Amino acid sequence: MSRSPRGGTSQLRIIGGQWRGRKLGFTPADGLRPTGDRIRETLFNWLAADIHGARCLDLFAGSGALGLEALSRGAAHCDFVDTAAAGIADIQRHLGTLAATGGHCHRSSALDFLAQPHPPWDIVFIDPPFGQALVGPACDLLARGSVLAPHALVYIETGLDETLPELPANWELHRDKSSGQVSYRLFVVAPGENV
């Protein structure tokens, strides 16, 4: 992410796939912290075998960095969810610029969005503002809502000093790493009841 001296806009760069190298501007906001290039590169290496054709959900989308990267790398669909009108407008503009027909924006809180019925997602990105205890409630709703496909993958990004809440017993830790002040983990949802 870089900040432009003109107009107070910030930029993110798509690092792989069909839009590799494209730079997209977004409106800066307090607490908005797009996932860094190095972390995204690691994450999408983890997802390389699963991303093509996947249905994705970018909760707490912010700049849309994770969902846009997913679409660039061959995901078929991504729902972008955020409460910020400016952020959702930016993502919608980027989808138009990139002619990305698989992206769908929803201005909503993550928890209100997850309380509604949806077709199942294959990959879910959970990267909320740090320190606000949003991971646990979001994961609870995902587990209870029949919205995860069999063997779905759930990515969770938190601050390094944050304790991960108790997750459903059938969410198996697949990969985990930290970088700077960020911890990030990928879980596989095993078949069986979400408990």
Automatic annotation (TrEMBL):
<dbReference type="InterPro" id="IPR029063">
    <property type="entry name" value="SAM-dependent_MTases_sf"/>
</dbReference>
<keyword id="KW-0949">S-adenosyl-L-methionine</keyword>
<dbReference type="Pfam" id="PF03602">
    <property type="entry name" value="Cons_hypoth95"/>
</dbReference>
<comment type="function">
    <text>Specifically methylates the guanine in position 966 of 16S rRNA in the assembled 30S particle.</text>
</comment>
<protein>
    <recommendedName>
        <fullName>Ribosomal RNA small subunit methyltransferase D</fullName>
        <ecNumber>2.1.1.171</ecNumber>
    </recommendedName>
</protein>
<keyword id="KW-0489">Methyltransferase</keyword>
<comment type="similarity">
    <text>Belongs to the methyltransferase superfamily. RsmD family.</text>
</comment>
<dbReference type="InterPro" id="IPR002052">
    <property type="entry name" value="DNA_methylase_N6_adenine_CS"/>
</dbReference>
<keyword id="KW-0808">Transferase</keyword>
<dbReference type="GO" id="GO:0052913">
    <property type="term" value="F:16S rRNA (guanine(966)-N(2))-methyltransferase activity"/>
</dbReference>
<keyword id="KW-0698">rRNA processing</keyword>
<dbReference type="InterPro" id="IPR004398">
    <property type="entry name" value="RNA_MeTrfase_RsmD"/>
</dbReference>
<dbReference type="GO" id="GO:0003676">
    <property type="term" value="F:nucleic acid binding"/>
</dbReference>
